[in-house]
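> example.struct
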């Protein structure tokens, strides 16, 4: 191994993950200032000399981010909240370049020794905090090279690919081998019918989806980001769901609708860099919290149209629920406890609800949470655990820790 990871001490794990350097920058088309992170949000080690600068916490997964830049150039891309993902002129580059000098093997060496990584359990998202993971050329090559390299070492962690390109046909045999060797590959096809002003690349998102399913991958429809102000009203929503149901309904594993999360980076990217307007609901949320609740009427419309055109297909309002269902395991992130509204709103099979109801978090004690904290090598003492709370009560307070640390604890409650 190279860089900081050569002599990793237990306290260092926390100190690295606690680093969250930020810088205030101006908008290009708006007045005011925006606070952006220096490194990828949630990076395990925000230092370009360390291989784990290429790995970040993102929701229920660790994301592997080898690249800076993306040809898809979606106006709302959350990646634009990271300064290292922007050009000197303050915009996301269209062409890709390597984030650091580290090889795939060096990143894997560092990853598998980090306490936030659980062999055969941690979900690994490819490019989830950086770029389109199936972009032509070296990007898609690195996506498959990483999955194959990890499996060659005997690890069988689930992989997650969120894509707007679709699966290129020339990689289907490699995908089939990976699926046969590992427990699961989830491909989330991202399409919400947004206009060209927001998503310049208007391609067939379901490219080769059936072939990828036949190769062994699980295919979800990532119906995000939905915003009536951007053109996804009830009429268009019904049209899209009918189209997907007719063309792909026999193998779609789940539908995962969602709104757009407000962050300063997204605000700057849409308004500050492109001079466009945010949906009114997002502007209302621009008060410090990164809300992404789907408007109730839109959520109900999704459920109604999916019942009509995708009968029997689960509808989840948390992406981790689709992953839990794919893996036949209790809820990643304990959604049934910590996000009850989203859990209850979802159209989830009774069999999966039964699995979730027996998850470890349901019988977790203070001592059990402390064991999780200790396994993660976090110097925190647990005072209380109430499953109605978002996080355990600790000293020092867990809610004051960085996103990477607090999210990792939340994700570990049901491991």
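> example.seq
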């Amino acid at each position: 191994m190279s860089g900081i990871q050569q002599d990793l001490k237990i306290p260092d794990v926390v100190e690295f993950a606690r680093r969250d350097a930020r810088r205030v920058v101006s908008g290009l088309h708006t007045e005011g200032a925006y606070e952006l992170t220096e490194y990828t949000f949630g990076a395990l080690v925000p230092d370009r000399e360390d291989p784990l600068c290429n790995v970040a916490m993102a929701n229920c997964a660790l994301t592997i981010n080898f690249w800076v830049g993306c040809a898809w150039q979606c106006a709302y891309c959350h990646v634009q909240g990271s300064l290292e993902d922007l050009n000197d002129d303050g915009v996301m580059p269209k062409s890709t370049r390597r984030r650091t000098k580290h090889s795939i093997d060096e990143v894997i060496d560092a990853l598998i020794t980090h306490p936030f990584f659980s062999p055969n359990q941690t979900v690994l998202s490819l490019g989830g905090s950086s770029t389109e993971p199936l972009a032509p050329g070296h990007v898609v090559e690195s996506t498959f090279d990483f999955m194959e390299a990890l499996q060659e070492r005997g690890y069988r962690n689930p992989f997650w690919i969120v894509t707007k390109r679709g699966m290129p046909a020339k990689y289907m045999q490699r995908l089939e081998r990976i699926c046969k060797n590992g427990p699961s590959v989830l491909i989330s096809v991202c399409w919400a019918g947004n206009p060209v002003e927001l998503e310049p690349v208007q391609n067939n998102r379901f490219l080769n989806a059936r072939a990828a399913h036949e190769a062994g991958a699980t295919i979800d429809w990532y119906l995000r980001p939905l915003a009536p102000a951007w053109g996804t009203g009830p009429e268009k929503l019904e049209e899209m769901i009918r189209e997907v149901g007719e063309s792909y309904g026999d193998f779609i594993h789940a539908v995962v609708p969602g709104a757009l999360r407000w962050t300063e980076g997204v605000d700057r990217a849409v308004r500050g860099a492109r001079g466009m307007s945010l949906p009114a609901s997002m502007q209302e949320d621009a008060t410090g919290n990164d809300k992404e609740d789907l408007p109730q009427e839109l959520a109900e419309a999704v459920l109604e149209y999916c019942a009509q055109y995708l009968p029997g297909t689960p509808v989840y309002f948390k992406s981790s629920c689709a992953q839990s269902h794919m893996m036949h395991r209790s809820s990643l992130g304990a959604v049934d406890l910590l996000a009850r509204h989203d859990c209850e709103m979802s159209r989830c099979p009774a069999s999966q609800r039964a699995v979730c109801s027996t998850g470890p978090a349901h019988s977790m004690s203070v001592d059990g949470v402390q064991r999780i904290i200790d396994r993660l090598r976090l110097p925190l003492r647990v005072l209380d655990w109430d499953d109605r709370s978002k996080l355990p009560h600790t000293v020092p307070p867990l809610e004051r820790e960085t996103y990477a640390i607090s999210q990792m604890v939340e994700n570990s409650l049901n491991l």
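> remarks
The CA atoms of residues 190 and 222 lie 4 Å apart.
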